[in-house]
């Protein structure tokens, strides 16, 4: 079973991966030296020069209110050791080297004997994929989100344990995560067979972490939702909890607004989608009643304050933040457990998947009216558990589910007639 699917943006992986041999701080310093932008900034600093920060693909400008990822300094264990991959076998080198054009994604495998993250490389012209390397994780995985600190490509994963693991995807055979968010006071206690509440840090979740979401605007922030009925905001600069919100039941899904860094959307077992402004923690959140346990929530990428939610009984609906009494529309798209993804590039394109294994594409350009189905197909994923559109390639959709096989679906032919101009 694959429980979660996360894309890695093109060019985000280090071209040559690293194996374990040096302590983590040495590795971070090495990665900074190998990053041309960081090297230029360090050289300027040594020369006593000052100037505007260099803007890159993974930096936030001052205008958007986000913190530059180069300011992140994740904490964590220091026993991981790394070395650059070296091989005389040209084929092996080619297989381990990442190109800027590579399509890379991460899945969370819930295999009972060895839960892990699997990093795939997809060859679009050949329509083939392979596992580049994998990472053993603490427990049954429930959610993932890609992120970066400016030197490493990272993946945060929520599991049945009461903490978030953050792993470097640039490292092969990593011994331990870059950092833990929450967890036990003593590092070694995090991996005991049983964790007692008294072992945990005061700021830690107390139960499984069901959802994790990186804030792409305020890039030092990550949100996590838990079976302990709470949402926590984590400061990635310090690996500490910056705030906690109490909910009435388990929190199953989270999403940050793509332009307004302070807006956080959540949904869970109380059959409610919740919109809150994290700048005003004492302000009452806006709540939207749904027709079942909320499986997934997202902001409409091109719709201002339009939000979508799907439920455990196969429902899918849209709300407008200023009209929280009733949904704009509501559909029964599957018999049970529906999830979805909104395209960040093609306005109004959404994909919906369900427990029955079907994946459908929808035209939702007019959010005030029920969407129109474009196509529906059954794939080898089994029950669909996770969907995501590629952040750089507008027509590529990723999916995974109960059968343990990831899917990369090129939607170009199916949507051409509907979204011709896009």
From TrEMBL:
Pfam families linked to this entry: WD40
InterPro entries associated with the record: PWP1, WD40/YVTN_repeat-like_dom_sf, WD40_PAC1, WD40_repeat_CS, WD40_repeat_dom_sf, WD40_rpt
Entry superkingdom: Eukaryota
Keywords, sorted A to Z: Phosphoprotein, Repeat, Ribonucleoprotein, Ribosomal protein, WD repeat
Residues that span the membrane, as ranges: none
Gene Ontology CC, one term: nucleus
WD repeats: 202-244, 331-372
Annotated Gene3D superfamilies: YVTN repeat-like/Quinoprotein amine dehydrogenase
GO biological process entries: rRNA processing
UniProt region (Disordered), positions on chain: 45-75
Protein name per its UniProtKB record: Uncharacterized protein
Annotated source species: Trypanosoma cruzi Dm28c
